[in-house]
Specification:
With 328 residues, the protein is α/β, with parallel strands linked by helices. It has 13 helices and 14 strands.
């Protein structure tokens, strides 16, 4: 196995997908010859040609419309939104069109579209580039939302997303692109959508999170060992559909829950996790303390100088772990 960064694992997955199926196409702003802003498609235009890996105009709405039309003609489009903060320009295509097409056409048509996009903070990018808008997508019926936290999962989840006959929003945290390496098989493999992973086993408290916050949660779990607290970390991997069974099994075991998201507190994925746990009899009755939540403030994303203060991190998670452990 090769030791790959997450962006290298994504490039490898895209290469595997293009090689496997001639009807798979990649397109977006600067994804062709330049290989994308983060070089996630580097070398693919040269290998597969302009007909299969190509640039589009700077118009997200046109990219979404093209993906819908190609899907109706039996293609399997992989469209890139250069930064997910620009998703508002293509919301009609995603939420009003591709998400509803299978239902609208009585199951006679598929929308096998993968919407790839970088997102997330901690990299001091300009305004609108770092916003965590996954909650908007998770509330859109008809689409799946996938957010990997490591290179191995990134490749397997991306290939599973491309195989899926429904639209999948595949979000890639910018801080994870080159922050560490992982063993990633060179051959084609998939990681199932809708299935969470136990990233770290523990017995005293459960942390449920996704994306870059998995790294912060693992750091918090390691720090808690010094205080004799055993932390279990659940990596959601897919936030829509949500793997409630894995969450409930962990909460039932530990009796305490801390939910973590990078996005603003209001109406996010963490609120959905908390509601699902509260509605499950076996989970709510197993709780020994109120559910705690770690999230960003309910403000617009902070400018660069305040970014690190605005974003939640391992210390915030540790504080909430101690709160639920001390509850009496």
């Amino acid at each position: 196995m090769a030791q790959l960064t997450m962006v290298q694992a994504i490039t490898n997955a895209l290469d595997n997908a293009l090689e496997k199926d001639n009807n798979t196409l990649i397109f977006g702003e600067d994804v062709g010859v330049n290989g994308g802003v983060f070089r996630a498609t580097e070398g693919l235009n040269e290998k597969y040609g302009d007909d299969r890996v190509f640039d589009t105009p700077l118009a997200e709405s046109a990219i979404g419309g093209l993906a819908i039309g190609l899907s109706l003609e039996q293609y399997r489009p992989i469209m890139e939104i250069q930064f997910f903060g620009f998703v508002f320009e293509v919301m009609d295509s995603i939420s009003a069109q591709m998400s509803r097409t299978r239902y609208r056409m009585g199951g006679t048509r598929n929308m096998p579209i993968t919407v790839r996009s970088p997102y997330g903070g901690g990299v001091h990018a300009p305004e609108l580039h770092c916003d965590s808008l996954e909650g908007l997508m998770a509330q859109t019926p008809g689409v799946k939302v996938v957010i990997p936290s490591n290179p191995y999962d990134a490749k397997g989840l991306l290939l599973a997303s491309i195989e899926d006959n429904d639209p999948v929003i595949f979000l890639e945290h910018m801080k994870l692109y080159r922050s560490f390496r992982d063993e990633v098989p060179e051959e084609y493999y998939t990681v199932p959508l809708g299935k969470a992973a136990v990233a770290h086993e523990g017995t005293d408290v459960t942390i449920v999170t996704y994306g870059y916050m998995v790294r912060e949660a693992l750091a918090a779990a390691e720090a808690m060992k010094e205080q004799g607290i055993s932390v279990e970390v659940i990596d959601l991997r897919t936030i829509q559909p949500l793997d409630v069974e894995t969450i409930v099994a962990s909460v039932t075991k530990t009796g305490r829950l801390v939910v973590v998201q990078e996005a603003q507190r209001q109406a996010g994925v963490s609120a959905n996790v908390m509601a699902e746990v509260a509605e499950r009899r076996e989970a709510i009755l197993a709780l020994k303390a109120p559910i705690a939540r770690v999230a960003a403030p309910d403000t617009v994303y902070a400018f660069g100088l305040a970014e690190n203060d605005w974003l939640p991190g391992a210390e915030d998670i540790q504080e909430e772990i101690l709160n639920v452990m001390k509850f009496d």
